[in-house]
Amino acid sequence: MAVSDLATLEELKSYLGLKQDTEDDFLSKLIKASTAYLLGQMNRQEGLDHDYQFTKGLPEVPEDIRFACLELAALRYKEKSRLGEISKTIAQQTVSYSQKDLSEYGRSVVNQYKRVTP
């Protein structure tokens, strides 16, 4: 069974303010990668809609999870032009880039939905 993406291409393009279709394939890959990463961090690799131990899964993606996916995919999109850079000096000012895998918000969402086995 295929795992449903946590966000749509249209949502990501709106979040980023993109109008053109030239990067749709790349953006779709970012959504899939962000979905896989978040689900892995939540110990829910089978997806959110999976029927687990005879209980209903989540029928729709909760908004906080959707936003965390959009945020992560957007971050990766913005980082593509500075892969491997930790900081950059421009006109005698240094800009430092975050090295975290998720924002504080994204991490709190993962922790809220994380499946923990006894």
Folded structure, characterized:
The structure is a single chain. The protein has 118 residues and is mainly α. Helix content is 45%, strand content 7%. It has a two-stranded antiparallel ribbon. Strand 1 and strand 2 form a beta hairpin. Helix 1 (9-16) packs across helix 3, helix 2 (24-41) crosses helix 3 (63-79) and helix 3 packs across helix 4 (104-113). The two termini are 26 Å apart.
Annotation keywords:
45% helix, 118 residues, 2 strands, globular, mainly alpha, 4 helices
Basic shape: globular
Number of helices: 4
What's the number of extended β-strand segments? 2
How far the N terminus sits from the C terminus, by CA atoms, comes to 26 Å
String of helices and strands:
HHHEEH
Mean pLDDT: 83
Poorly predicted parts: none
Strand content: 5-15%
Spatial arrangement of strands, main beta sheet: 1-2
CA gyration radius, whole angstroms? 16 Å
